[in-house]
Amino acid sequence: MPFEYLREIARTQLPLTVDTEANIDKLRVLRAADLVSVMLPSATADTQQFARVLAITPKGRQMLAQELERSP
The whole model's pTM is what? Predict the structure, then answer.
């Protein structure tokens, strides 16, 4: 699930390079929701693809904070 991946990203040092197709797809969803700032590969690239997560956006940080408030 993309939001779980956002939590994982929040625990790592940025910038972060991602090279697995499944995680790149999650990043596409997170970027579309304006939760991360990320450089994504073009959809037509035939070579090894990778993405670079630059930052969690203020909206992404707000979502993470709200989740912490709801946790027991």
Answer: 0.88
Residue with the two structure tokens 């697995």: 20
Contacts of 52 (CB under 8 A, 6+ apart): 15, 16, 17, 18, 38, 39
pLDDT, tens digit only, all 72 positions of the chain:
789 999 999 999 999 999 999 999 999 999 999 999 999 988 766 677 899 999 999 999 999 999 888 876
In whole angstroms, give the CA distance from residue 64 to residue 70.
10
Q: Which residue reads 């390079």 in tokens?
A: 17
Beta-sheet pairing, 36-39 with 16-18: unpaired
User: Amino acid letter at 33?
Assistant: A
